[in-house]
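Retro notes
What went well: the complex prediction finally ran end to end.
Inputs used:
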Amino acid sequence: MKLAVWTYEGPPHVGAMRVATAMRRVHYVLHAPQGDTYADLLFTMIERRDARPPVTYTTFQARDLSGDTAELFKNAARDAYARFKPEALLVGASCTGELIQDDPGGLARALDLPVPVIALDLPSYQKKENWGAGETFYQLVRFFADPARAAAAPATKTRPSCNLLGATALGFRCRDDVRELTTLLGRLGVDVNVCAPLGAAPSDLARLGHADFNVLLYPETGDQAARWLERTYGQKIIRTTPIGVNATRAFIAEVCALTGLAAPADIEADLRLPWWSRSVDSNYLTGKRVFIFGDATHVLAAQRVAREEMGFEVVGIGTYAREFAREVRAAAAEIGCDALITDDYLDVEHAIAALQPELVLGTQMERHIAKRLKIGCAVISAPAHVQDYPARHAPQMGFEGANVLFDTWVHPLVMGLEEHLLAMFRDDFEFHDGAGPSHLEAAPAPQPEATPSAAAIVWSHAAEAELAKIPFFVRGKARRNTEAYAALHGVAAIDVDTLYDAKSHFQR
Amino acid sequence: MSPAPLARSGDAAAAPVLRERGQHEVFCGLTSIVWLHRKMQDAFFLVVGSRTCAHLLQSAAGVMIFAEPRFATAIMEERDLAGLADAQDELDAVVERLLARRGDIKTLFLVGSCPSEVIKLDLGRAAQRLSMRFAPEVRVLHYSGSGIETTFTQGEDACLAAMIPDAPAAAPDAPAELLVVGALPDVVEDQFSRLFAALGVGPVSFFPPRRAAAPPAIGPNTRFILAQPFLTDTVRALRERGAVRVPALYPFGAEGATQWFTAAATAFGVDPVHARQTLAPARERATRALARHREALAGKSVFFFPDSQLEAPLARFLTRELGMRPIEVSAPYINRELVDEELAALPGDAVISEGQDVERQLDRCRAARPDLVVCGLGLANPLEAEGLTTKWSIELVFSPVHGFEQAGDLAALFTRPFARRAALRV
Ligand code: SF4
Ligand code: SF4
């Protein structure tokens, strides 16, 4: 038994829903109690989908348990087929359904429906959402792209083509990444054969084998399927996630090497990140201390962008995706920071509180942690909330994605010029401590909080007064640093000298 | 100014109920933890369940994540399912760690879920054992909020019913006391307390109490009145302690609130003239507040999907005080005793349905093309996309909507979707 307050991932059947909802012409019959229907609102509210997820829940009740829950399942599957006429029926059980052991696959097959039945065996008490999405996608691909069943290849093919693998419903900016990469590949002279799961019908999966290679957008959901396609069709996998300028360039180079195509000269025409980063206003970004947490795809990409393209200092990275612990640890070792592999958000909170970064790049969970700790935060990974599904085109991938990263990561920070003005005019009424960044909603001024370990340390009046002269947005840090310094050196009473001793101690 | 008497010909209470047994698109009882933990701030709710249960709570409470909320899930894993004795030990360990970290917990609710019920994990035994171990600092109670036994607000019912055996007994010769049953926002409780005092009804206490560790005394001289219509088991448990129910409409709208306070006043022998005079100013305020909304809503049709059990009283309020026309009013389940009077106030041609077959209900709803659909979050956007106007029912549970002073706010929840439609030119 594991105590969980907030979770990064839902159960594996929610992963299956993300695949089913992303696709067209499939329907998922889930042996589950009524409360499990909450999952619909993730899609209709958080992602603002205008249609219900293609899911039928059997909603068995306690009184059914002594009777025939198998019959209930069969009726639900039969009705769902009759009503929705999908090309394929996915069947499975949620955590409770799994316990009553009705064998949804066998039951559905016994109905002799005129469409394939894909039985999903997703162990709810061992696995989680992303695994469930990956497994579901893999099962679908394996079935429909099976060479014995697959669609015949078109007779003529003019341009090289690839598949885009891994984009799901409720993913982070999947819609925009797919559009961005489709455009980018098109300009390179590569067609997208099939994008899946997002937007694909089972009959599209049957055409997967026709592509020359696969682009693995999100390894969390697409890796297993991509490997199988590689084994079955010899399709090479491009694994470079094109998030950030350098990764996008590397991605383009790989595509070109694979296809023998050359990128057009103006491929970077709309790329602005490099100049935005080099312009003098961005000087203040140098060495900003950043903590990064999320799924593996986005964390691994973000740590590189943060260092190489924003000039930040990455002080810690981590992921809740244990499946990718190795990769994240390797990246951390390379940067020389610690890797936090956990799905306990309290661990993440402790890590952030201890590291005192100036910016957090994370999920909605880290947004809340950062808010509490009064640190700026930008969301870079699922799970995300409704405001992270924007109306505008806001990809993470490709060159436009790089532009978006610059904007969204800098937004929570006080702007460069503004930071200087605040420091210079801090006694002016317009620039008083409570003013905060002018482009953000009026937030209460950061309150310096004593660190618990420093509870016994006292501040002299003079030191407090001196502290008050420090601009508010670094004051909390100055206080904590001073207290940490005092604790380290056994100083029980902080005076002005301690403050400056600490300053020189921590100066980089 | 006073509305017509409630009894009418062809009322919906006499009409047959459409019973549906298909897919129920409703929350399970765990969801009520979202407001119960805010109401009883010294209590902690530990769900013994699966990752799904944790995810449900997070999604339902997702609107605001607190530092460390007073609820959590003990997620069962593969090895817990293997042997039951093991699961009890594991639970002890989880509770021990939790209580060590959270010294502020005075009452711990172990909340059963579908998985814990299906594997027959005995939370009663666990609660007893843990209570003995942590007494007197912490009481450990248990109830089930599982989706195989409870829907949405039934979780509150189960929780309250579980608290009653633990409440002190009022002496048989104690003076009559009024117990208002069903969780209400503090601001509403305070308004109600003031009105009861002015009426001369009292002493009054509220259940659930603001502190779970201090439940009110209950005995044969307890008169209780329901603020919420979903409290079947709580009513039974109160009666077992000898308490007597004061039947009334639910306090939604000017009429509902008047009838509700008047019923309490009558039960406490308050002079009817005094009662009427005392309630008059509040009632007039509420009626005035409703007038504007009545203009916007009168003549419009409304279709209720099952959700919170508040459907019948709300439909009555919309029909009688705002002139709306209910097409279908459905509830996850109907306890006749608790809502008969509400149903009687609905027109005879309204379909009353119990349970759900969501696909068939959507068919009926599309065919009827109501002006307003009251439904859960999973259905709202898809129906809007089909051109229907919707009101999410969950807001009716989370906002202060009871009593005279909130009557206008309650009506506003229903006019807002129309106002928004009218405002948009895109
Ligand atoms: S319906 Fe059952 S399994 Fe699902 S969240 Fe509710 S209690 Fe948990
Ligand atoms: S702050 Fe976070 S949890 Fe709260 S509403 Fe916004 S996104 Fe949701």
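What we learned: Confidence is low (pLDDT under 50) at residues 1-10 of chain B.
What to try next: split runs per interface for comparison.
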